[in-house]
Structures are given as structure tokens and as C-alpha cells.
Amino acid sequence: MLQLSDKWAAALLGERETGMGYQVVTIRLKDGRRFDGVAVTGGIIASIDGHDHIPFSDSDIAAIHGESWPSSTRILVCHDYGQGGLWAIVCADSAEQVRQRFPGLPVFESPPRRSMPARSR
Predict the structure, then answer these.
(1) Do the Cβ atoms of 58 and 38 come closer than 8 Å?
(2) Among 41, 66, 91, where does a domain finish?
(3) 61 and 6 in one domain?
(4) How many angstroms separate the CA atoms of 12 and 9, rounded?
(5) In sequence order, which residues have a C-beta less than 8 Å from that of residue 94 and are 6 or more positions away?
(6) 60 and 85 in one domain?
(7) Which of 29, 46, 49, 93 has most Cβ atoms within 10 angstroms of its Cβ?
(8) Pairing between β-strand 44-48 and β-strand 85-92 as defined by DSSP bridges
(9) How many structural domains are present in the chain?
């Protein structure tokens, strides 16, 4: 974990929470490297997707910005839990990006056909 200095408070306060009490942000370093999927809670970097440690220090950071819904494609997915399914819309650059990030998750590039006929009015 890495405690961020107070100078990043304004950047974090300007971004919305990803979930209760935490934010997922992108961090760009002074050397040009970029880290997506950075989980921050209470001003502390708790984790980075794909890393088992924090590979930089606070002084290496050039910018922090939220990973709010990017101008990307909305993709329909379904988590089948056996007795039913949980449907969600995921924002990503492509359906393939979702498949790589969440192997085994059914991804629908077009709306699935209805299993039951539409009701008549």
C-alpha cells in the first residue's frame, strides 16, 4: 500500500466514488508510464490491477484521474449463477476487451433473442 500525499486530495475529491468508500483511478507517472485499475481508499493506494505491489512512489506521480465511464462501447454481459442470471452493461473499448478481462463471462455483442414471445397489448 502507498499513502498519497495531501497534494492529491483535490484530484481525488473531484472524482466520483467507484463503490462505497473507494475509487478506481488511472495514475500517470512523470516518466510516461500509466497504471489503470488503481484502487484508492482513504488516500491510500490499496492495489493495482495486474500488480502484486505498488511499483512507484508518490513523488513519481504526474497525474491522477478517475476511471469514470469512458467514451467507449456499452456491452451487455450476463453472469449465470445456476438458478438465473445477473445482467449488466459494461463499458469497454470492445467486447474482446471484456472477454479478456473476465474470462468465462458471456458477452453479447447484440441483444440476445427473447426466449419467450413478446406479450401482445
Answers:
(1) no
(2) 66
(3) yes
(4) 5
(5) 73, 75
(6) no
(7) 29
(8) unpaired
(9) 2
Burial tier of 121 (Cβ tally within 10 Å: 0-12, 13-18, 19+): exposed
Residues 35 and 46 in one domain: yes
Check residue 114 and give left, alpha or beta (phi > 0: left; psi -120 to 50: alpha): beta
Extract the C-alpha cell encoding 86: 445477473
Q: Is the pTM of this model over 0.85?
A: no
Give the structural domain span for 104: 69-121
pLDDT digits (tens, 9 = 90+) for 16-48: 777 778 888 899 999 999 998 898 988 899 999
- Structural contact between residues 2 and 58, judged by C-beta atoms closer than 8 angstroms: yes
* Residue (of 14, 60, 2) closest to 34 by Cα position: 60
What grid cell was written down for 69? 465511464
Reading the block at residue 13, the C-alpha cell is 475529491
Per residue in 35-93, pLDDT tens?
A: 988 989 888 999 998 888 999 999 999 999 886 544 456 788 888 888 888 888 777 77
Dist CA 40 CA 25 (whole Å): 7
74 and 59 in one domain? no
